[in-house]
Write a structure and sequence with these properties.
The chain folds into two domains: 2-300, Alpha/Beta hydrolase fold, catalytic domain (Rossmann fold); 309-454, Immunoglobulin-like. The longest helix has 18 residues, at 147-164. The protein is an alpha+beta fold and 463 residues long. It is built from ten helices and 24 strands. The strands form three sheets. Strands 1-2-3-4-6-5-7-8-9-10 form a ten-stranded mixed sheet, with helices on both faces. Helices cover 21% and strands 34% of the residues.
């Protein structure tokens, strides 16, 4: 066993911590500027990979020191490699076979046990608070007791570990998080400037607005919910995301509902891409990992490649079909785009069935058609494109609406990206309406199965 003390340079620390929006947030999430110590408890090889079982120091909990366990895996004799931190979800621990897969792809990988034990985590080798839902959602007796505070500290100290290893290029660091690990990725990428690529699988901000733990928020006092939303929720760090980030989720994910996932994505301004897995719930499948590899390789290995880009055009009508045009760009020149749509009330996000529609290509534009009879009174849809190397990207999910104008004319509309669990978004486009859309209000007429729009009289043109 060997023991190594890492001394952090003050100038480097100044760039590693992002200034936060409020002093209260900054104080709550800060990591003490102190040396990070680690020890290697065991070392062995797996084929051409070197594996180390390590423990490193992290944020104290209730006055007691905390050590975090991790598997550090890397290909031998490859020089300085891109570094990658893997953050598991609730009920998980560091997974050696999984870490080996990531390392075989050419990364120096640190897969950690997040702090503590807790339900389904009795094999965790890390100290700190237990990873139980009440602790993940707690704000009392002090917000600093919240689990996510300590999880982010564990991750950021893990990033420090990677920067000080001679096998790692400290200028090429990435992070992948699943479920609660995705939430932690959002929190980390919003605070730590050392990351150059991030992947969030399933995680979201605005958690109290739509998640599987909704009943727990309902039992909290208004003060507790406010504390959570203003101090803990990842929404506070969406505006400060800086590393390019890939968002990936199943359309039917039952933990973080799709509207809050998409709302979080829409708030981010750094380079980003969105991928949906149709009719999938809370599972990370092998083909999802292949997409993640493409993202990380593009950002950390300087491949010079980029993901497809999908841009929705102006809604059209042709006979009894609504036509949705899309401009899809890809640097490979070869793409397979698909429109996915689903009917039913917006509240039934976890039980929807998504169907496929294939388009046709003409003069640089892809066109997808849906029978008007399907829009009774609405459908939600997105368009996703995959290129020939396996990189994929989707448009935001929007609604097609059957709407009634103030003069009782029936037409159709395309909504803004869906951000609310139980409420329809305002139209972004109205078929046949000319000019800029004014501020409007939307109501639903259940007997007539139509959305009614209230706004100044439009100027209609032939569609």
């Amino acid at each position: 066993m060997r023991f190594i003390t890492i001394i952090l340079l003050a100038s480097w620390l100044a760039t590693a911590t992002l200034a936060l929006a409020t002093p209260e947030l900054g104080q709550l999430w800060s990591i003490p500027q102190q040396p990070v110590a680690y020890e290697v408890s065991k070392t062995y090889t797996r084929g051409n990979l070197q594996v180390e079982e390590v423990y490193y120091g992290s944020r104290e909990y209730k006055g007691h020191p905390v050590k975090i366990f991790g598997y550090f895996c890397y290909p031998k004799g490859r020089g300085k490699l891109p570094g990658l931190l893997i953050c598991h979800g609730g009920g998980g621990t560091a997974n050696l076979p999984g870490a080996i897969v990531w390392a075989q792809h050419g990364y120096a990988v640190l897969a950690i046990d997040l702090p503590g034990k807790g339900e389904q985590r009795w094999h965790s080798r890390s100290g700190g608070p237990d990873m139980d839902v009440p602790i993940l959602l707690r704000t009392s007796p002090d917000p600093s007791y919240n689990y996510l505070i300590h999880a982010v500290a564990a991750v950021r100290n893990g990033i420090t570990f990677l920067t000080e290893r001679e096998e790692v290029n400290p200028n090429r660091l990435g992070m992948v998080g699943l479920s609660w690990g995705g939430v932690i990725t959002l929190l980390t990428n919003g605070q730590d400037t050392r990351l150059k690529a991030a992947v969030n699988v399933f995680g979201a901000g605005f958690i109290s607005e739509g998640c599987t733990w909704q009943n727990r928020f309902a039992l909290k006092s208004s003060q507790e919910v406010t504390q959570w939303e203003t101090l803990i929720d990842p929404k506070n760090f969406l505006a400060t995301q800086h590393a390019p980030i890939l968002f990936m989720t199943g359309t039917n994910d039952h933990c973080y509902y799709l509207p809050t996932f998409q709302k979080s994505y829409e708030e981010i301004t750094v380079p980003k891409k969105l991928v949906f897995l149709p009719n999938s719930r809370h599972q990370f499948l092998p083909y999802m990992q292949a997409i993640v590899f493409q993202w990380l390789d593009d950002k950390l290995k300087n491949t010079g490649r980029s993901f497809p880009n999908v841009q929705i055009g102006a809604l059209q009508r042709k006979g009894q079909r609504l036509i949705i045009p899309a401009i899809i760009q890809s640097d490979t020149g070869r793409i397979k785009p698909t429109l996915y749509y689903s009917a039913g009330p917006l509240r039934k996000w976890t039980t929807r069935y998504w169907q496929e529609v294939y388009g046709f290509h003409e003069d640089g534009v892809w066109y997808f058609g849906l029978p008007i009879a399907q829009v009774q009174p609405d459908v939600v849809f997105y368009i996703q494109a995959m290129d020939d190397r396996g990189a994929a990207a989707a448009s935001s999910i929007r609604s097609l609406l059957r709407v009634q104008l103030p003069d009782n004319q029936i037409t159709y509309a395309l909504s803004s990206p869906i951000r609310q669990v139980n409420h329809q978004e305002l139209p972004l486009q109205i078929l046949g309406y000319k000019g800029m859309l004014p501020a409007i209000r939307i109501t639903f007429n259940k007997p007539q199965q139509v959305y009614q729009l209230v706004f100044p009289a439009p100027q209609l043109v032939n569609s």
